[in-house]
Amino acid sequence: QVQLVQSGAEVKKPGASVKVSCKASGYTFSIYFMHWVRQAPGERLEWMGWLNPGNGNTKFSQNFQGRVTLTRDTSATTAYMELTSLTSEDTAVYYCARGSGTSWFDLWGQGTLVSVSS
Amino acid sequence: QSALTQPASVSGSPGQSITISCTGTSSDVGAYNYVSWYQQNPGKAPKLLIYEVSNRPSGVPDRFSGSKSGNTASLTISGLQAEDEADYYCTSRTTIVTYVFGTGTKVTVL
């Protein structure tokens, strides 16, 4: 069935990096943008960036510019989000979301909790 | 990019109608009809309710409707039901092809 399945929870130390995966199935991976959205505990959703799986092009929120990398493995139909120089403020649930049409997110992963603590 | 502004909370009794506003700028909400709305229940991923201002995906009840005027979009829930108690977020694509979410609104059914 059509779904996005993300990797499991991570615990990291400040200054470390984390890489979260998002496995797509049930649709043509390369023709839908993949977005990444995060939500700190009790806070709002925050858009991080998008990846065009067809050509690897990316675009980021200026809040994450220089700290986030979005990549994909088209043969594995999997997208990846890597965030570096982690601080406690990066503790959040990270979601991948399929971009559809002009501007909406119609399919979401289950979320991956990343906890940053010394 | 600043978050779109939503009221922190809105409440209503079962059967009533409520409206959630989402105010941005001419660089996001006001630029195109690229506003969408999401419902999020505790501990769950968001669910798409409305896309391109006023379109409902299949499976979303018609008591959910959307509109826009200028830099402000709105989500109306008519005939409020207990199951509508959740957090609601708007989002808009911007003129530089980034996205911005709203501050979020907690809907309480009295």
Could you list the spans of chain A in which at least 5 consecutive residues all have pLDDT below 50? none
Terminal-residue CA separation of chain A: 39 Å
Tell me the quaternary state. heterodimer
How would you characterize the largest beta sheet of chain A?
Answer: 7 strands, mixed
Helical coverage of chain B, percent range: under 10%
Q: Give me the secondary-structure category of chain A.
A: mainly beta
What is the residue-mean pLDDT of chain B, rounded to a whole number? 97
* Biggest chain pair interface: A-B, 25 and 27 residues
Strand coverage percent of chain A: over 45%
Describe this protein with a few key phrases.
heterodimer; A: 118 residues; mainly beta; 4-stranded antiparallel sheet; B: 6-stranded mixed sheet; 3-stranded antiparallel sheet; 9 strands; globular
Describe the structure.
The complex is a heterodimer of chains A (118) and B (110). By secondary structure, chain A is mostly beta strands. Chain A is built from no helices and eleven strands. Chain A has strands at residues 3-6, 10-12, 18-25, 34-39, 45-51, 58-60, 68-73, 78-83, 92-100, 104-108, 112-116. In chain A, the strands form two sheets. In chain A, strands 2, 4, 5, 6, 9, 10 and 11 form a seven-stranded mixed β-sheet that branches. A four-stranded antiparallel β-sheet of chain A has the order 1-3-8-7, with no helix packed on it. The termini of chain A are far apart. The model of chain A has no long low-confidence stretch (mean pLDDT 97). By secondary structure, chain B is mostly beta strands. Helices cover 0% and strands 44% of the residues of chain B. Chain B has strands at 9-12, 18-23, 35-40, 47-50, 64-69, 72-77, 86-93, 99-101, 105-109. In chain B, the strands form two sheets. In chain B, strands 1, 3, 4, 7, 8 and 9 form a six-stranded mixed β-sheet that branches. Chain B has a three-stranded antiparallel β-sheet with strand order 2-6-5, with no helix packed on it. The radius of gyration of chain B is 13 Å and the shape is globular. The mean pLDDT of chain B is 97. The chains are: A mainly beta (118), B mainly beta (110).
